[in-house]
Design the sequence.
C-alpha cells in the first residue's frame, strides 16, 4: 500500500524560521521602543489640553474667575479644620476665585486636579529649566489674597468671558521641529529623555503641542 504523505517542517526549516524571527526582533524592538517612549508625554499633553478646556468652560458657566496652578511636587493642602486629606501635585489644580466672600466662604476654592502620577503615569514632570524661567509673580486678574495663596507658582487665569491670562505669553509660537528648538513656550513637559512643548491660546483657551522631541532636538535643558 502507498505510504501516506506527511506534511510538516524539517528541523532545518524550523531553525531558519527561528533565526528570521530573532533577526526581525533585533531590528524592530529599538524602533518600537523609540516610538513608545514619547507616548506618555503625548498623552500628558492631551490631558492638559482637556483640563484647560474644561476649566475654561467652568469659568464661563459659573461666570467666575478661575485659576490653574502648577505644582511641580506633591503638597499638602489639607484644611486643618477637616479630617479629609488634600494632597495636590505633581501636576496642576483648578481653583474658583470668590472675590467677595461672606461668612465661612473662602476666596480660593479647590475644584479639581490633574495629577501626573495618578492620571498620567510614567515619569512625566514639568521641565526643570522651564520651571526656573516660568513667571511666578502676582497676576492682576487675581485678588491679592489669591496671589498670596499661590506665591511662587506658575498660574493661568481663566476669565468669565473665556479668555485665558497666560503670563508673558509668546504670541505666534509655532510648534514644529525646527521652530521648537530652544524657544520659550507656555508649558514644557519632560520624562527626562524627551520633551513636549505646549502653547496656550489666550483668546480661545485652545492648546497646541509639539511631538515628543529628543534632547538633541531641543538642546540640553
Sequence:
Amino acid at each position: 500500500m502507498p505510504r501516506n504523505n506527511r506534511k510538516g517542517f524539517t528541523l532545518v526549516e524550523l531553525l531558519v524560521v527561528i533565526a528570521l524571527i530573532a533577526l526581525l526582533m533585533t531590528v524592530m524592538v529599538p524602533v518600537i521602543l523609540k516610538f513608545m517612549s514619547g507616548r506618555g508625554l503625548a498623552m500628558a499633553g492631551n490631558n492638559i489640553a482637556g483640563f484647560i478646556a474644561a476649566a475654561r468652560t467652568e469659568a464661563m458657566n459659573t461666570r467666575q474667575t478661575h485659576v490653574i496652578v502648577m505644582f511641580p511636587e506633591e503638597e499638602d493642602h489639607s484644611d486643618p479644620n477637616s479630617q479629609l486629606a488634600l494632597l495636590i501635585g505633581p501636576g496642576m489644580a483648578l481653583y474658583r476665585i470668590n472675590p467677595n466672600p461672606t461668612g465661612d466662604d473662602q476666596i480660593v476654592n479647590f475644584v479639581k486636579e490633574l495629577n501626573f502620577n495618578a492620571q498620567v503615569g510614567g515619569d512625566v514632570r514639568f521641565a526643570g529649566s522651564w520651571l526656573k524661567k516660568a513667571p511666578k509673580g502676582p497676576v492682576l486678574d487675581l485678588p491679592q489674597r489669591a496671589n498670596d495663596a499661590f506665591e511662587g507658582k506658575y498660574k493661568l487665569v481663566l476669565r468669565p468671558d473665556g479668555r485665558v491670562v497666560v503670563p508673558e505669553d509668546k504670541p505666534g509660537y509655532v510648534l514644529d521641529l525646527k521652530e521648537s528648538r530652544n524657544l520659550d513656550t507656555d508649558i514644557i513637559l519632560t520624562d527626562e529623555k524627551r520633551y513636549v512643548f505646549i502653547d496656550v491660546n489666550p483668546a480661545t483657551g485652545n492648546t497646541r503641542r509639539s511631538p515628543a522631541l529628543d534632547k538633541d532636538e531641543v538642546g540640553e535643558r
In short: The longest strand covers residues 108-115. The chain has one domain: 36-214.
